[in-house]
Write a structure and sequence with these properties.
Blueprint lengths: L3 H7 L31 E4 L5 E3 L3 H8 L3 E9 L23 E2 L12 E9 L4 E3 L1 H4 L4 H16 L3 H5 L4 E2 L4 E2 L31 E4 L5 E3 L12 H9 L3 E4 L10 E3 L4 E4 L3 H6 L15 H9 L2 H8 L23 H10 L3 H4 L6 H4 L3 H14 L29 H8 L13 H15 L12 E9 L5 E8 L2 E3 L9 H12 L10 E3 L1 H9 L2 E8 L4 E11 L5 E6 L2 E3 L5 E3 L2 E3 L4 E3 L56 H9 L4 H10 L5 H11 L28 H9 L4 H10 L4 H10 L1 H4 L32 E11 L7 E8 L2 E6 L2 E4 L8 E8 L3
Length: 841
């Protein structure tokens, strides 16, 4: 064997020193979830700085010829079990005093201590070189290799730059109003205790406005506790921005809230501002919980956290294929829960093949396969070693070695304003975001998201003419409303509310019991549309809209709409229990299409808004004949209601979006315009300038050669022909989302063209029912069984924690990040997202 010094000299040109912009992957294998803690450690290529597990480093060497690798192994330091650590599924026993993660006094985060061993390994003979060995080698070798080793060790790993280990919810910014706050010389002096709301005499949650000294109660919380919103109403009336919570004043500070900035803030002049109203900050004592303490208490709410995590019982850990835990990368529980459920679906399981590195070129598909293999193979489903158990004699804990999907999280979040951060997110929004990415990356091959894709039919009936309009759209999730007025325990809820209003601190928290049948009834009942412009009677009138399934997917996702806004636009979560069934039959919600003898509304849009001196050349607008440009007039100049546009702009919406909202709703008022905005906020051209029909870039005038090939490919991948995609894009100014909406509202016009129906089979069609024309959707019976659900704990989607329960071989299993255990009492009534699979008949 050649001398190791000579070998190093021969490969010296391939050994690089990391530069500031280099990404060093020293925590995760590029092709698996091996890490420095895994058996065999991690090999970091000293040229590309990619990491490889022991089973893949030889493959990389064979394919690239690279020989020098930086080998890292980590072993846990032995330490005694902390008495405050809890068992599987239990909330932390050590009471947190700070709204933070990974910070002293915050919520517990397990911080392991490791011993690290590093060396250079030369392939293929696996010759090893330590730092001590370099001392005997030539200067040029010693200097280059030492610098490279030190650079790799000192560089932040990619996972470190992506992962927030600490989160401090108490970090507050200085209010922009604090330095120059206006304070009225009105003679008001505030006593050091005995405060009451000036309006309702409430004695808890009392705030003083720092401008006029008004003492008022705070906001009402989602569960009915708190105040009566009088401090907020005072701000809305006066505009005085800052208020201090009186019971929290101490020599160290106090809770200060800025209504204008809508956040807890710092006031560097607080002693001066308090003294203005006779309050000596240095003599005050804390008599009420701070907002941080209240949030911590809510986040530890026993009724939800313990029930969902099943922390009242000893759970049996489970290991093996399909039972692999996922490490929390800092508020990544939403991602963990969604991906665990998705890889229970056969379509996604088929993407997780060991040979993915050789058969797939798209990055997303590679990482989906990598994640799927990591979750399903069982290779990483092993008990995490107990640092205090040197002999391995103790029973396995619920924690697993698991996998840390750092690269996957970075990829799916890249460029997204929310999912690229380490803040908590909405699991439903992430699911749709991920499905969107899969749709874009699976145009030419099998698309696993087809398992969830279905068609929705909307039927609108003009009440004056009784003529109807049918449209179809693609969807992936059924959003189920929660009719709170249908609660079966109304008397208990009212009694608990009465006791809270009377200040009874012992009043129990009562959860509303909502029947699932009431939720389904609310989903299927007709919606009343006021100010509907009817093309049959050429005026605004009332209409009803009914929504039905035009196809039934293989796998159905139901979202319980627990998150909503109060009358003051403050986000809140409905604390409800819903008796979600194990089996579901949606056959009664199947769309029937146009009924015999039923007349359709004419395809005519409202007349365009014009100035009186403009000649009208066509009245059909963007819904006229797309091939006849004579219907569009470049002279059309809309008259927009300036007051409505101004009101929308004051709400923070872009000016051009407000102008379009008023234009497309025909100057029918603020409510209609607001509905348009809420429905089109995700449009890529939402804030783009208003383009009128007949302009050079208007609808119907986009030449074929200027159409986006990417948009064409996207529509074609949904099952439409290229001609149909071209027609839709030409009719909608080459805007993808509008083109998709257009194509579903013109299906009758497209039936004469060749509509691809790939993905449907005669065997999948129920009772010989003809499949709806349009995109690839799988259809079949509307009977389902529950196989998974995702639950959320906390007050809003921006905080709290997610876990999922999945039924495997008739056994419910709880996946709580790295903890995977047999579920004893799956809390099916407290779920947020429910997943059903079709029952074969």
């Amino acid at each position: 064997m050649a001398d190791v010094g000579e070998v190093l000299m021969s490969v010296l040109s391939t050994i690089r020193v990391p530069k500031p912009g280099d990404r060093v992957h020293k925590d995760e294998c590029a092709l698996s979830f091996s890490s420095p803690e895994s058996e065999g450690g991690l090999y970091v290529c000293m040229n590309s700085f990619l990491g490889f597990g022991s089973q893949y480093v030889d493959r990389h060497h064979a394919r690239t010829g690279q020989r020098a690798y930086f080998h890292i192994t980590r072993t846990r330091k032995t330490k005694k079990e902390d008495d405050n650590n809890s068992g599987s599924g239990h909330p932390p026993k050590k009471k947190p005093t700070r709204l933070a993660i990974g910070i002293e006094g915050g919520f517990d985060v397990e911080q392991e201590q490791y011993e690290e061993d590093v060396k250079v390994v030369i392939l293929p003979d696996r010759q090893e070189v330590t730092s001590e060995d370099l001392g005997t080698m030539p200067d040029v070798v010693r200097e280059r290799v030492s610098l490279s080793m030190a650079g790799i060790m000192a560089a932040d790993s990619v996972s470190h730059t992506l992962q927030v280990q600490q989160w401090d919810g108490e970090v507050r910014q200085e209010s922009r109003h604090a330095a120059d706050l206006k304070q009225l010389d009105n003679g008001v002096k505030i006593p050091p205790s005995g405060w009451r709301c000036d309006v309702c005499d409430l004695q808890e949650n009392i705030w003083m406005n720092l401008t006029d000294g008004k003492v008022l109660c705070g906001r009402r919380y989602f569960d009915g506790s708190g105040g009566n919103n009088h401090a907020l109403l005072h701000f809305q009336e006066t505009g005085y921005p800052l208020a201090v919570k009186l019971g929290t004043i101490t020599p160290d500070g106090a809770d200060v809230y800025s209504y204008d900035e809508d956040d807890m803030v710092l006031d560097s002049k607080l002693p001066e501002h308090l003294a203005h109203f006779g309050i000596n900050m240095m003599t005050m004592e804390k008599t009420e919980r701070t907002m941080t303490e209240l949030e911590i208490a809510v986040n530890q709410r026993v009724g939800e956290w313990e029930v969902i995590q099943e922390s009242g019982t000893t759970l049996r850990p489970m290991f093996g294929p399909g039972l692999t835990g996922m490490k929390n990368l800092g508020n990544s529980c939403y991602l963990n829960s969604v991906m665990q459920v998705l890889f229970t679906v056969p379509d996604f399981q088929s993407k997780s093949v060991p040979s993915f590195t050789q058969t797939m070129s798209l990055p997303l598909i590679k990482f989906i396969a990598k994640l799927g293999y990591g979750l399903l193979s069982g290779e990483y489903s092993k008990p995490a070693p107990d640092p205090g158990d040197e002999n391995g004699a103790s029973e396995p804990r619920g924690d697993q070695i698991g996998i840390a999907p750092q690269m996957f999280k970075a990829l799916v979040g890249r460029g997204h304003p929310e999912f690229s951060t380490n803040r908590q997110q909405d699991a439903q929004e992430f699911l749709l975001h991920f499905i969107n990415m899969v749709e874009r990356n699976c145009r030419s091959g099998s698309n696993p998201s087809e398992a969830f894709r279905f068609l929705v039919e909307e039927r609108i009936v003009c009440q004056q003419s009784q003529k109807a309009k049918y449209t179809q759209r693609v969807d992936y999730i059924v959003q189920l409303p929660v009719p709170m007025d249908q609660a079966t325990n109304t008397e208990e809820l009212q009694e608990a509310e009465r006791r809270r209003e009377e200040g009874d601190s012992s009043a129990p928290t009562v959860r509303a019991q909502i029947p699932f049948t009431a939720c389904m009834a609310a989903l299927s009942e007709p919606e009343i549309l006021t100010d509907f412009w009817s093309s049959a009677v050429q005026t605004k009138t009332t209409a009803t809209k009914t929504t039905r399934f035009a196809s039934f997917p293989d796998h159905l996702v139901i979202q319980i709409k627990k998150f909503t806004f109060g009358l003051d636009w403050v986000p809140k979560k409905l604390d409800v229990s819903i008796d979600v069934p194990d089996t579901l039959d949606l056959s009664a919600l199947l769309a029937t299409g146009q009924q015999p003898g039923e007349e359709l509304l004419p395809e005519v849009a409202p007349p365009p808004l014009m100035t009186p001196d403009v000649e009208v050349k066509g009245i059909l607008g963007s819904h006229g004949n797309e091939e006849d440009d004579s219907l569009y007039s470049p002279l059309l100049s809309p008259v927009l209601d300036d007051s409505t546009v101004s009101q929308l702009c004051e709400m923070g919406f872009p000016l051009e979006a407000c102008r379009k909202a008023v234009y497309y709703t025909g100057n029918t008022g603020i409510d209609a315009a607001m509905n348009w905005i809420m429905s089109h906020m995700d449009d890529p051209d939402f804030a783009a300038p208003l383009v009128l029909p007949g302009c050079s870039s208007g609808a119907g005038t986009t030449p074929t050669e200027s159409l986006s090939e990417e948009h064409l490919a996207t529509i074609v991948s949904m099952g439409f022909s290229r001609d149909q995609a071209t027609k839709a894009l030409r009719a909608t100014s080459n805007v993808l989302d509008r083109a998709v909406d257009w194509i579903f509202s013109h299906l009758d016009d497209l039936e004469s063209m060749d509509v691809s129906e790939g993905g449907r089979s005669a065997a999948e069609s129920e009772g010989g029912r003809d499949p709806p024309p349009g995109p690839r959707v799988r259809d079949g019976p509307g009977k389902y069984e529950l196989f998974a659900f995702i639950s959320h704990m906390g007050t809003s989607t921006m905080c709290g924690h997610y876990v999922c329960h999945i039924k495997k071989d008739q056994q419910w299993v709880i996946f709580n990040d790295q903890k995977v255990c047999a579920s004893e009492k799956p809390p099916k009534d407290l779920g947020y997202l429910y997943f059903y699979r079709r029952v074969a008949e």
